[in-house]
Every structure is written in C-alpha cells, then in structure tokens.
Automatic annotation (TrEMBL), chain A:
Source organism phylogeny: Bacteria, Bacillati, Actinomycetota, Actinomycetes, Micromonosporales
GO cellular component, one term: plasma membrane
Name of this protein: SSS family solute:Na+ symporter
Membrane-related topology note: Multi-pass membrane protein
Keyword check for Transport: yes
InterPro entries with a match to the protein in the record: Na/Glc_symporter_sf, Na/solute_symporter, Sodium:Solute_Symporter
GO molecular function: transmembrane transporter activity
Localization per Swiss-Prot or TrEMBL: Membrane
Compositionally biased residues, Low complexity: 537-546
From TrEMBL, chain B:
Residues annotated as transmembrane: 37-59
Protein name (Swiss-Prot/TrEMBL): Putative solute:sodium symporter small subunit
Key words of the record: Membrane, Transmembrane, Transmembrane helix
Lineage: Bacteria, Bacillati, Actinomycetota, Actinomycetes, Micromonosporales
C-alpha cells in the first residue's frame, strides 16, 4: 500500500463515519415534536455546555478560516494575524451581548436578528431588510466554505465537480433530516480530528527546528520580496488598516445570522456565559493555524497554480505522515461542511421568519415554517454550489468580502438595538441603505494590485480603501460610520418633526430572562393547552408583534 | 442581577482592549519559544480573556434553585 492509498483510505473511512453520524443525528435526543421549526432550527433550545462549545467552534472556526488565514500570513505576514485579535475581542462582547440576545430571543421565540430588529423598532420592513442583507451576505460565505472543501478534495486527488456535489448532497440530506442536531454532533468529531491535526502540526514544527527557525526563515523570505507591506511586523502605515479590520470583523460576528443560531441553541443564560469564557481556546487554535502559514513560508512550500488557499493542504500533503494527512483532510472537510450547514439553516430561518411569515403566509403553522426552512436551506446550499461551479470561484471570494461589508451595516439595528431602542425605525432603514451604498461604491472603487504594485483588475480588488501615503482603512468600518451618522441625524430630524416612534415590542426585563423564568413557565402552561401544530400566538403582556410561535418548555434538557 | 454585581462587567473592558494594542505589541523582542512578541502577545491576550471572563462569570452568577 502506498502513502497515497493510506492518505485516501483514512480520509474516506472517516468521511463515511461522518455521514452515518449525520444521518443518525435526528434520533439524538429525539424531540417531542420534530416538525416544529424550533426543534429543527435551534435544536429545541436545549443544548448544554459541551454541545454548545463544540457547535460554536464548528460553525465559527470554519475551514475557510483555517485555510484562508494561514494563506494570509503566508502571503503577507503580520497583516494576516488580524484574525486572532479579532477572535479574542468577540469573546468578552459575547459574554454581554449574546446573553442579552439569548434572553430576548428566548422570551419572544426569535430565531433570527431580523425578527428582533422588527420587534425592537416596530418595523417589519426593517426586519425584512435585515433578513435580505443577512441572506445575501451568507450565500457567498457558504460558497467560500465549499471552495475550501474543493481545495482539500483536489489535494486528496478528487478533482472536478462531482466530488464536491456529492459532498454537498450528503450534508444537505443530513441537515434536511436532522436540522441543527447534525452539525452539533459532527462538530465534536471535527474538533477531535482538528486537535489531532494541530498536535501533528506542532510536532512537525518542533522536528524542523522549532518556531525560532520558522520565523527567521520567513523573515528572510519577506525581506526578499519587493512588497513593503509584508513582514513579521506591521509597517508604520499599516496600523489603521489592521485596527479597523479587527474591529469590523469582530462586529460582523454579531450580525451574521449563523453566529446567532448556534448561541440560541443554548439551554440557559449561564451556558452562553460559560461558553464565552471557554471560547478563547478556539482563538489559540486559530493562532496556531495562522502561524502554520509562517512555517509553510519558511519551508518554501509553494501553492498550486498560485492559489494561496492551497498552501495549507499542500503543507499537510508534504510534511504530515500519510495517515495523519488523511485525518487532517477529513478535519478540514468536515470543518467546511458544518458551517455550510449552520449558515444555510440560519439564512433559511431569516427567510421563513422575516419574509415568508411576515409577507407571504402570516398564518403559517409551525409545521409549515419548518417545511419552508428545510427547503430554503437546500436552495441556499445548492445555490452556493452553483455559484462556484457556474461562475469563476474567485468571484465567490469577492462576494464574501462584499458580504462582510454588507452584514456590518445591520449592526446599528441588531447589535446596538440590544442596548437601546433610541434609534427611529426610519433612521435605521435610511442608515442601513446609506451604509450598503457607501460600502458597495468604495469596494467597486478599489483596484486589485499584485505583489509588485501593478494593477491587475479595476474593481473589487479587496476591502482596504487607500487614504494616501500608504495608509488604508477597512471599507466596512467607513460604511458603518456613514450608516451611524445617518441613523443619528435622521432620528433627531424625525423626532423634531414629530413622527411617531415604532412600537418597541420588547421590555427591559426581556433582556435578562432565563430558563426557569416564571413568565416563561406560565406561558408554557398556556401553550400546552393548544392543539399541536396550531399557530398559537400567545399575547405578550407588552402587546408585542403577534404570532409568536409557542415557546419550548425550558424544562426540556437532556444530555 | 443587582446593580452592584453589574459593576463586575467593567472588568471585561480589559480583554476587549488588550488585543487591540497592536502599536504597542508591534515588536520582535522578547521572543517566547522563538515566537516574536507580536504573535505570542495575542496568545497571552486569549489566556487573559479566559481568566477575566471566568472571574466575571463567577462574581455575577445568580444563585438559582
């Protein structure tokens, strides 16, 4: 048996196991009512500490992260390191903001940011706009996961379109059957495999002279390039670009639909808070992966066809023992499929709750909602696959970059909205639209420059907007600043003009509600009397938006 | 949660700001296991975030039945 056979054999066996596990996930902690959207979409909101931690790691630290971040440190050095501070900054913010989001979502039965925005500012239109922005930003994000998967499959030796389509079909069927339970269960497998990959990587670095020689080797190579922006440290002019990229990326995490869906599956507030404390472990894993880009550079690993995203797969192929390489490929493949599944569930929920139920079928039963979400999640996944197969894959990477700038524009409504209802709904809508337009215009205006400073494409050449003398700034942050200024000014103007505020459907104590909260208990008794599948709309005491789905029993926690 | 225990949340400013101090961290020396300061500083920040968030969690935890 050759090394190649071992590599491919280990990979195939692991992937087959994953598929079986994904199919079995629907039976795991079988819900009382599997046709309810809450069961399918957020696992009945009953996930405990460990499940949550793995699921969050599985959906946030995706294959694209593990492949694109080392590709950046390989190509540019210090600038690629932005991903690590950005990941760390999100953890204390999660502790405060996600806990509030969890509580208000729990009490109102929200599954998405868009529902929250609609209820908080009394505007279904704003909710729909947030939902559309979220869906548009998520589809290319799914696509780049599939590109990473394709890069891995190609390195293993499964080139072409069919292996990718087969993988997408399998994960689609898993998600269709099991909802969020499938990615949650697979995340555990992924983390075990990924931990193995990181240990192998660390041993490999130690065997080849340790980090000292890796960083010295990389420094020599950076010094040899004509590009002044690369190197082991940030250039004097690079601080603003680095800082705004960190801030923008960290905030975007609180606006992407898939980031919320994982958190909502927690069974209580303490689970969310304990998870925030444990999340920095993933930041360190990401840091280790990012430094693999430096190691690859010092060893002179060359990317296939000049595509930097192949650096990590190539490094694994050339330096790992063959059976460990098989494990690493499986880890990266699952790490691509889990976020693809969670993202498609999140995008589907946004559609079902903020567009379908608001505008198309206001009287949709929970069963009809679950049915719609299942099918929309399929459309999202195959749409993303079509995007990379039918269109140039490089186009998806551009779209993902644009998506990051777009999603950031929902921050005033979905993130600041957790703290204050001060903004007027019309002002938030105006701000969101100005932010989207500003972001798109600036992105369109950025030419793509190669390493020697030559312009290779006129438009959409990155997200760093040059502001002269070598400094640049992240477009998303500029657009968000415009967005906020418009939102504040318009709020003041419409207040001065005496326009009525939207009705805030939430109350201050909603942001602190917990499982076992007496109000929730009472509501559960109320709902238990309703016929199954009936669109019970428990009236909230504050008279919030009607047609909330029945809340699940908080007592439902089994592990 | 009582307003008193909420003061603990201000501690979270530390792990939020620390990773952003890149102009200060932008140096090679001192290295740790051969890793330049710019890189290992963020590992230290991740550890700091874990410690601070755990402290705040324990200090603000409500005693629920």
């Amino acid at each position: 048996m050759t090394d190649r056979d071992v590599e491919v054999g280990v990979f195939l066996v692991l992937m087959a196991g994953v598929v079986l596990l994904g199919f079995g996930a629907a039976r795991w902690r079988r819900p009382a009512d599997p046709y309810h959207l809450e069961e399918w979409a957020v696992g009945g909101r009953a996930f405990g500490n460990w499940t949550m931690w793995f699921l969050l790691g599985g959906s946030m630290y995706s294959a694209y992260t593990f492949i694109a971040v080392p590709a950046l440190t390989y190509g540019l050095g210090a600038i690629g390191w932005f991903a690590v501070p950005f990941a760390i900054v999100t953890t204390p913010l999660t502790f405060i903001f996600t806990t509030r989001a969890w509580s208000v979502a729990r009490r109102h039965g929200f599954l998405t940011h868009s529902e929250f925005a609609a209820a908080r500012f009394g505007s279904p239109g704003l909710g729909a706009l947030v939902a559309v922005t979220g869906i548009l930003a998520t589809i290319p994000y799914v696509a780049v996961q599939l590109i990473s998967l394709q890069a891995v499959l190609r390195t293993v030796g499964f080139g072409g379109e069919w292996p990718l389509l087969a993988a997408v079909t399998l994960i689609s069927i898993c998600t269709f059957r099991s909802g969020l339970r499938a990615p949650a269960l697979l995340s555990v497998v992924k983390d075990v495999l990924l931990a193995w990959m990181l240990i192998t990587a660390a041993l490999m670095v130690a065997m080849y002279g340790g980090w000292g020689s890796a960083f010295r080797g990389a420094a020599t190579r950076f010094a040899a390039t004509p590009n002044p922006a690369d190197g082991l440290l940030l250039p004097e002019t690079g601080h603003l670009g680095f800082f705004t990229l960190v801030i923008g990326s960290a905030l975007a995490i609180f606006a992407y639909p898939h980031a919320l869906v994982g958190m909502l599956a927690a069974k209580d507030r303490d689970t969310v808070r304990r998870n925030a404390a444990a999340l920095p472990i993933y930041c360190m894993a990401l840091g280790l992966m990012a430094m693999m880009g430096i190691f690859a550079l010092s060893r002179g690993v060359t990317p296939a066809d000049g595509d930097l995203n192949t650096v990590v797969p190539r490094l694994i192929h050339e330096y790992f023992p063959s059976w460990s390489a098989g494990i690493a490929y499986a880890a990266l493949s699952i790490a691509a499929l889990i976020p693809a599944a969670v993202m498609s569930i999140a995008a589907a929920n946004a559609f079902t709750r903020s567009l379908y139920r608001t505008y198309l079928r206001p009287d949709a039963t929970p069963a009809a909602e679950a049915w719609t979400s299942r099918w929309v999640s399929l459309i999202v996944k195959f749409g993303a696959a079509a995007l990379i197969l039918a269109v140039d894959p490089a186009f998806s990477v551009d779209l993902q970059l644009i998506g990051g700038v777009l999603i950031l524009q929902t921050i005033p409504a979905v993130f600041l909205g957790l703290l204050t209802a001060w903004f007027h709904r019309a002002a938030l809508t105006a701000g969101l639209i100005s932010g989207l337009v500003t972001g798109l215009v600036l992105l369109w205006d950025i030419p793509e420059v190669d390493g020697t400073g030559r312009i290779v494409a006129e438009h959409f050449g990155g997200s760093s907007w040059s502001i002269g003398d070598g400094r640049s700034i992240y477009v998303g942050v500029v657009a968000l600043a415009v967005n906020l200024v418009v939102a504040v000014v318009v709020t003041l103007l419409v207040r001065a003009a005496g326009v009525r505020d939207g009705h805030d459907g939430t109350r201050p104590d909603d942001y602190h509600a917990d499982a076992g909260d007496p109000y929730l208990q009472r509501l559960d008794e109320l709902i238990d009397g309703l016929p199954t599948g009936g669109s019970g709309s428990p009236a909230h005491p504050s008279g919030g938006p009607s047609a909330h789905p029945p809340l699940r029993s908080p007592g439902q926690r089994v592990l | 949660m009582s307003p008193r225990s909420r003061h603990w949340h201000w501690l979270l400013v530390i792990p939020t700001v620390a990773p952003l101090l890149t102009p200060f961290a932008n140096r090679i020396e001192p290295t740790l296991f051969g890793v330049p300061f710019f890189f290992w500083y963020q590992f230290a920040c991740a550890l700091l975030a874990m410690v601070v968030i755990t402290v705040v969690y324990l200090a603000t935890r409500e005693d629920r039945p």
